[in-house]
Amino acid sequence: MAAADVERHSKKRKAAPEEEAPAPPPAAFPQDVGLEMGSEDEGEDGGDVSDDGVVDHFPEIDTRSDTEDEDYTEDGEDEPDESEEDEEEDEEDGESSEETSDDDLGIFPKAKTVISDITGQPKRVYPDIEPDYDSDSSTEDTPNRVGDIPMHWYDDLPHVGYDINGKKVLRPARGDELDKFLKTVEDPEAWTSAFDKNLQMDKPLSPEELDIIRRLQQGENPDASYDPYEPTVEWFTGKGKEEIMPLSAAPEPKRRWIPSKWEKQKVMKIVRAIRQGRILPNKPKTASTQPQFYPIWNDEPSSAPAPLPAPKPRLPGHAESYNPPEEYLPTQEEREKWEATEPEDRERDFLPQKYAALRLVPAYDQFIKERFNRQLDLYLAPRVHRVKLQIDPESLIPKLPSPSSLKPFPVYKSLQVAHEGRRVRTVSVSPDGGWVVTGDEGGVLRLWEVMVGKEVKRWTFKSKIGAVEWCPRTDVSFFAVAIEDRIHFLFPPNLPAAILAATQHALSPANLPPPPAVPSPVKWVSVPAAQSSTDAPILSLHLPSSPEPPKQLVWHRKGDYLASVSEGQAGVWMHQVSRRHSQAPFKKIKGAVQLVLFHPSKPHFFVATQRYVRMYNLAEQKLLKTLTPGIRWISSMDVHPSGDHLIVGGYDRKLCWFDLELSDKPYKILRYHSRALRSVHFHPTYPLFASSSDDGSIQVFHARVYNDLMTNPLIVPLKILRGHEVKEGLGVFAVRWVPRQPWLVSAGADGQVSVWCS
Amino acid sequence: MASTSTSEPTHPVVFTTQTPYALPSQKFMIPTSWKRYQLSQLVNKALSLPKPIPFEFLVQGEILRGTLAEWCAEKGVGEEETLEIEYFESVMPPQRMSTLPHEDWVSSISCQLPGYFLTASYDGAIRIFGYSQKLLHTTAPHSAPISSLCIVPEPSRADNSSHLLATASQDLTARLTRIDLSSPSSPKAHTLASLHLHTAPLSSVSASPSGAHILTSSWDGLIGVFDASIPDADEVPADEVAGGERKKRRKVAQEDGSEAPRPKRKAPTTVLKSHTARVSRVVFGPDAKGASAYSCGFDSTVRTWDVENGVCTSTITASSKPFVDIALTANGHTALAASTDRTVSQYDLRAATTSATTPSVATLTHPATPSCIAVARPSASAPAVSTSASEHQLVTGAYDGVVRLWDLRSTRAAVAAFRAWESNAGTGPKKVLSVDWARGLVGVGGEGGVEVWKVGEGDRITTTA
Description:
The complex is a heterodimer of chains A (758) and B (465).
Chain A: H1 2-15, H2 40-51, H3 63-75, H4 81-105, E1 112-115, E2 122-125, E3 159-162, E4 168-170, H5 177-186, E5 193-196, E6 201-204, H6 207-217, H7 261-276, H8 332-340, H9 367-380, H10 393-396, E7 412-418, E8 424-429, E9 435-440, E10 444-449, E11 455-460, E12 465-470, E13 479-483, E14 486-490, H11 497-507, E15 523-526, E16 539-542, E17 552-555, E18 561-565, E19 572-576, E20 581-583, E21 595-598, E22 604-608, E23 613-617, E24 622-627, E25 634-639, E26 645-650, E27 655-659, E28 668-670, E29 677-682, E30 688-693, E31 697-704, E32 714-722, E33 732-738, E34 743-748, E35 752-757
Antiparallel strand pairs in A: 1-2, 3-4, 5-6, 7-35, 8-9, 9-10, 10-11, 12-13, 13-14, 14-16, 15-16, 17-18, 18-19, 19-20, 21-22, 22-23, 23-24, 25-26, 26-27, 27-28, 29-30, 30-31, 31-32, 33-34, 34-35
Chain B: E1 10-17, E2 27-31, H1 36-47, E3 55-59, E4 62-63, H2 68-75, E5 83-89, E6 95-100, E7 106-110, E8 116-121, E9 126-130, E10 135-139, E11 146-152, E12 162-169, E13 173-180, E14 188-196, E15 202-207, E16 213-218, E17 222-227, H3 244-256, E18 264-266, E19 270-273, E20 279-284, E21 292-297, E22 301-306, E23 311-317, E24 323-328, E25 334-339, E26 343-348, E27 362-365, E28 370-375, H4 388-391, E29 393-398, E30 402-407, E31 416-419, E32 432-438, E33 441-446, E34 449-454, H5 460-464
Parallel strand pairs in B: 1-5, 14-18
Antiparallel strand pairs in B: 1-2, 3-4, 3-5, 6-34, 7-8, 8-9, 9-10, 11-12, 12-13, 13-14, 15-16, 16-17, 17-19, 20-21, 21-22, 22-23, 24-25, 25-26, 26-27, 28-29, 29-30, 30-31, 32-33, 33-34
GO molecular function (chain B): ribonucleoprotein complex binding
WD repeats (chain B): 195-227, 272-315, 384-416
Region (Disordered) (chain B): 236-272
């Protein structure tokens, strides 16, 4: 009965994987609540079975128990239960006796059967395996490592194989038959030894081998641990176990074999839908439904940025420790203050606490909130992948043409003219580019040839020369010199007759123009043309007295107007040579006028005060613009021959380039000099300008100006000309370009005037 | 040579020369480590000259500076190729002969008259010196600085005692002055004519080899062609402006030659107009008729002129090289022009000028502005004597006060250089403004006066001697 039960049960178990849901005993899925019970008719049964709480204790499936059961059924079906109990006891005894034998045999550990604390069922407990070297037979030292080969291969050799190190294992000495015989007589263990083929020698058999031999001789099971008389385990029979059987004798319900009404209704619904055409049973295979194959590796990898890794949370510090140092622990005031502040305003969202041991630390009460906040942060605060800019610093430097491609420009000092060591403050080059006139502080005015540097004429005045400027007219040839409160007009020697006559007529006309209606404080005194000579001024202007000579003279491009700037109140005067009239264009000027300049083509007039450059329209008599160079003290100024650009140099080492069309602010500020700028000058024809400074150097720039308003002027530093000595902190006072040639004339405080050639 | 038996690498060489010291034309094996000195010793020993003569060696038209091996490595000449080496007597180091002190700067010097040095100075005076450093005569045809001076050759004149001088000045005229050297101790001079054309200071004056024509160049870009004859009456009316300048000039003229009549005012026969800027120098070509002239100017051009027709026949345009002086080699094929970019450029006048800018054949680079060039001109007395060495040599004076002797066959560096005046510290170098070279003498005029140096002209001295 029990066997039949077992049979059935095992059959049922075997069928279990095949039957869908209900077949495995529910105890096998004690946690699996998500699994649905299949059809509705079997669900009840399953439910019934699962309701049966006893089945929960489904015993451990043991193959041995199965076999034991079978053995048991084979051996004695009719044995009563009592004998079983006895057998168990016997076995208990046997086991205990065998345990002792286990100790000396040692190779087959005997299992102990004990009652489990948890399940209440008996279980087998094997002794622990000692994990020492003897516990594994594979570590036994078998010297010969040739393996399982026919050993007659080594018959002719002196060795029988190789050990683990590759050394030969020599054949042990074997005695002859007599020795063998003697051994059987003398050695009591000789009969229990056998020939070991591997080692080619006799080895005594171990006790367990002897035991196996003995068992084989007696026709027993050679396995010593095999117990043919194990007690049977009553699974389904016996007291208290009748009810746990899942089988019932209840007849099978009818619904098991009649067709399901609901299923039929569902099927009919589908059938109707098919008939009405709402469901197409075999949809025509379209391209989209057909499986499409494509090489997944051929696509370009997505250019979308990889998902951003979450920012790492801040690492905990000492304050977060469960056992922080004392200094981290908040005092009572701090604690109160912390509690008083709003959670958002708190410096840190916890208070350090000290615990004696880690196991005393309670669960973190803010854990959920903190995680939630972090998730909110990650979700709400958008993170962008900030691309690090890889910028080559070289690429930021504007691409300028190389100076060698911008030739010609002055590169070397061709000659220099000494002025007896006196500072040369002013220099002017004749409009034809052949002559230079220089005035030094000793009152000596020199006229010399640009190309040779030979002085051809010298005028000596009593006091220092403030300024000298050659008249830009080409039909006459003369220059104006500012000394004390006079402006003298002189003409060079060796003039052609026509030019000489024109010059004399311009400066000392035979019939004077009518005096102006408003008498001017400036007196015009001229020598009659017949008595005029190159040695003395032909015309002199008597300016209102001032302690210093006029510091600047500047001609209008047409050579009729001359503006002079002197220190003091009525600084700026404008003199018209043809009308022999002088006037002060400005009644009152804010600030001390440093420089003035005529616009080369328009009736505009630049006036530089200490900080600003104002641009006036002389015809309309109004202020056009105020340029702010950002220089603390303007020292020099020049206007580009096109009239659209202005350069301004300052004593604070800056040179500003103004694009007059563009802005009142400098287009470019060049800070190349290490000392104050003294003079700037544009070349009248070449795209060059030069600046001189108190650091004794002259810097030559290429300045190309474009006609279209869109292109910015191109300014390229070309050359630093050094050669003037710095004397008493003063360097190069004046630079002037030679018209028609890319040559530069510079006058320095060291009493030298140099000509720089290309 | 026996020395070739050493293990040193050798090179086959054939020696040629145009000097009388000719070696047999056989192949020599020369160690490649030899330099000029060893080669010169070889020639001296082979010829067993009584007095050792130093030689220079030309390998394929270039003076040998280093060892033969270096030359071969530079030119990529294989060891098996036979080199043809030409040699000539090397230039002796220049020697200072005499110093002629001047009060003012000397703008021009001429050594063309044998036995005399003529100098023109910035004080407007012409000075005549003998070879004994003695100032023979001073005449001041100009009141303004004289910029140039030349001797007008007069092949037709029989006597050699009187010469015609042409001077160009910054007073816008050039003048013709006759100097009479019949009594060598007290020459006489009087100004015959003034040449009027220019409205700017004159830069140079030049006379044709035949003496028929005179060219003047000026800052106004014009070149005037004058004939050398002295007119009987003024061809140009006097300046209408009665300025003090003219008075003074007249006064000066009267002081100098009171017995002589007032110089006649001459007008040009032709005006050569093509330069767009200052003409700094004009010279006649070497042909005896004086049919062609060459000029250079600040507009970076060298122009060739047909003097008779007054047209510019060809133009050599350089890029931003304002030329200050030009000289022609003796054969007239090559022009040497000094420019303010510190170079002296060599131009082949025969080359067709097709491109916009003509590349120079060679460039002699100076450390300062070269101001003047002189080649050893064949004098009128011995025009046939021109040898290979003198054809290739020139002297240049520069603003750094150094006169350099160049050989066009080796343009990398000067053959010899000497500083004209001992400049005392502080004032800087004294500029050389004019050099002239004739008969082995180089006259150097400039800021410090005049110095005369003896410069060997290669084999020329020996051939004439």
